[in-house]
Each structure stands twice: as structure tokens, then as C-alpha cells.
Specification:
Largest sheet: 8 strands, antiparallel
Strand content: 35-45%
Strand order of the largest sheet: 6-7-8-13-14-15-10-11
Oligomer: single chain
Structural class: mainly beta
Length: 358
């Protein structure tokens, strides 16, 4: 009886579950992902204008190269459509987010030194002391830049004269806030003579060489000459000496005509020399300064023909075969009338900028 009880007790105990060695282990639930904050760190473009209003247009260095410009003046012309204000005025100029003394302060910079151009709307102009009707152009330079550029251009016309020659030497160095640039240029515009164009001399001109003789108050030259010609003679060309001393040589003497083409310019010659220099650097810890100097010399020369004069010849003097006084209208050879204009213009601009407390 005891043995049977032990056996029943053992049989009533549940059998332990046996696991197959090939069965996969039971999957446990994955822990929830950590709820960490995502921190994004950004940095504004150095020299860019801090504003809540987005720029109208932004051009990087690649976009500037695609314009095919060779000077800052060309950049201004190509971007004129976007930079012109609503009232048609020119934009205000910033350099690296700060005011400058004028466009002269950056016109000697090569376009390759510009890293970015921002065109801001009119409402941003007041923040920089400009009227709120002007758009703002902010030019941002590269942090490190050096260049030495020599440029030479030449042009001509299809009919001769008026050829142009241009040469320019630029040197630029930018090291962070320090900037220095120097530009020296020379422009030559050759004259266009009247003889280089299809312009004929005026056949009714009074003045000529060796001259035309006429009567006083535009009347007849001499009654004796009128009798020989059978008509009133009011103007006649003076024959070469000694034929000019014979009255009969004036009967059919045509009016003398002189071609002033070689002595008159349709467009005078122009010579222009320009020098631009800019130096900018920090002054102490809280002050920045820039100095711009420019000098331009111009000379224009034009020809206005030959010197002319009216000579009164007394009658019976033996110089001319007339009994009455006459007037001789003639040019003086070798005396060319020249007009020369020269000008010298200088510009200086100084800018000081800094912060006071906040």
C-alpha cells in the first residue's frame, strides 16, 4: 500500500516540457527608442546681412562667373534689372554687410574676389541709413584672395579712324578683414578726320587758298572787270602769281575751293589715365576703417580747320589789278586751329565704423 501511494503521487506530478534543440528561442520585445533631442548647429555666411526679410536675389561666385563680366562696373550693369528700385533709382552699396564711402570703394576689385551678392528689398535700406526707397546690394568678398591682372583691349572702325586702345593693371589682396587694391588704366581714342569719310568740301565757301576776291559789301569787284566779263563779277578765285596781276585772268576765274578734310576732325582724340586705390583694415578691437583715393586725367584734342582771315586790299596798290578796294578771303596754310581740353578729377573717401557698447 505504501508503494502504491508513492507511485500515484509520482504519476500525478506534471511532466516537464521538453524543448527541441532545433526550435528558435522565443523573441523578447525590443526596448523603446530613447527620446533624445536633435540639435542642429548652423553658421551664417560671414558678411551677410542679418534680416527677417529674405533677399530678392542671391548670386554665388559661380553665378557671377556665368555673367561673363570683367569689372565691377559690368556687374552693376548686368544686375541693373534686379537692383533698380521701384522709383527707378540706383541701389545702396554695402561691402561685407557694412556701408562704404561709395562705389569707388570697391570698383577696383576684380569680380573674382566676390564670393556672394545679395540684393535686399527697399525696407532694409533704412537699417543702414539710406532712404527706404532704395534697394540694397551687399557684396561679400572671399576671405583670402590675391590677384594680379593685366588686361588689354583694342578696337577699330570699318571706315578708318576712331581706333581705340585700352590697357589696365589690377592688383588685389584680401586677408580676412584686411583689404588692399590698386588699379591703373589707360584709354586712347584716336581721332576721325573729315577726310576719312565721304564728305566733300563746300563749293560755295568764301575762304580758300590762295584765296577768293570779292567786292566791298558783297558788290561787284571792279567795274572794269564787269565790262570785260559782260556781267557783274562779285567773287572770283585769285590765280597764282604772276597771273593774279592781270585783270583778264579774273574774267572766268572759278571760285577757289579748299578741302579742309585733313585739318578738321569729326571726332577728336581722347586720352584718359585713371588710378584707383583702396586700403581697409581694422583699427583696434572695435573700429574698422577704409580709405579710397582715385585720380583721373583727361585730354581731348580736336582740329577745327585752317586759320582764316579777310584782307582788305586798297585799289591801285599793284598787289591786285583793281582800281577799287577789294576783300580777299583766304586760309593761311600751316596754321591749323586746334582745340584742347584737359581736366583732372580727384576723389577721396574715408569710412570709419565701430560699435559702442551694445
Amino acid at each position: 500500500m505504501v508503494a502504491l501511494a508513492l507511485t500515484l503521487a509520482a504519476g500525478s506530478r506534471p511532466a516537464a516540457a521538453q524543448t527541441s534543440p532545433d526550435a528558435p528561442p522565443s523573441a523578447e520585445p525590443a526596448p523603446p527608442p530613447p527620446h533624445d533631442d536633435i540639435l542642429v548647429t548652423g553658421k551664417r555666411v560671414a558678411g551677410s546681412v542679418i534680416s527677417s526679410v529674405p533677399p530678392i536675389a542671391v548670386l554665388d561666385s559661380a553665378a557671377l562667373r556665368s555673367l561673363g563680366v570683367t569689372s565691377m562696373a559690368d556687374v552693376m550693369k548686368r544686375l541693373q534689372g534686379a537692383s533698380t528700385s521701384a522709383n527707378g533709382g540706383d541701389p545702396a552699396i554695402l561691402l561685407n554687410g557694412r556701408r562704404v564711402s561709395g562705389f569707388e570703394d570697391l570698383q577696383s576689385l576684380p569680380p573674382e574676389a566676390i564670393d556672394r551678392v545679395e540684393i535686399l528689398p527697399e525696407q532694409e535700406a533704412a537699417r543702414f541709413g539710406f532712404p527706404p526707397t532704395m534697394r540694397v546690394m551687399n557684396f561679400i568678398t572671399k576671405k583670402h584672395f590675391r590677384s594680379l591682372t593685366l588686361q588689354q583691349l583694342a578696337g577699330t572702325t570699318t571706315e578708318g579712324g576712331g581706333a581705340t586702345e585700352y590697357a589696365e593693371l589690377d592688383a588685389t589682396r584680401i586677408e580676412g578683414p584686411r583689404r588692399a587694391s590698386l588699379a591703373l588704366s589707360y584709354f586712347r581714342w584716336n581721332p576721325v578726320l573729315q577726310s576719312q569719310r565721304d564728305i566733300r568740301p563746300d563749293p560755295d565757301a568764301l575762304f580758300a587758298f590762295p584765296g577768293n576776291v570779292g567786292g566791298i559789301d558783297r558788290g561787284s569787284i571792279d567795274p572794269a572787270l564787269d565790262a570785260l566779263a559782260g556781267r557783274p563779277v562779285t567773287i572770283a578765285g585769285i590765280p597764282q602769281d604772276p597771273a593774279r596781276r592781270s585783270l583778264s585772268n579774273y574774267v572766268d576765274s572759278p571760285r577757289a575751293v579748299t578741302d579742309l578734310g585733313p585739318f578738321r576732325t569729326l571726332q577728336g582724340s581722347t586720352d584718359t589715365i585713371r588710378l584707383d586705390g583702396t586700403l581697409a583694415s581694422p583699427i583696434g578691437k572695435k573700429l574698422d576703417g577704409s580709405l579710397n583715393l582715385s585720380l583721373q586725367a583727361d585730354r581731348n584734342v580736336s582740329l577745327n580747320g585752317l586759320a582764316a582771315g579777310i584782307l582788305r586790299v586798297p585799289g591801285g596798290s599793284g598787289v591786285l589789278p583793281f582800281t577799287d578796294p577789294t576783300l580777299v578771303y583766304r586760309y593761311f596754310p600751316g596754321i591749323v586751329l586746334r582745340q584742347q581740353n584737359t581736366s583732372l578729377a580727384a576723389h577721396a573717401g574715408v569710412t570709419l565704423q565701430g560699435g559702442l557698447k551694445r
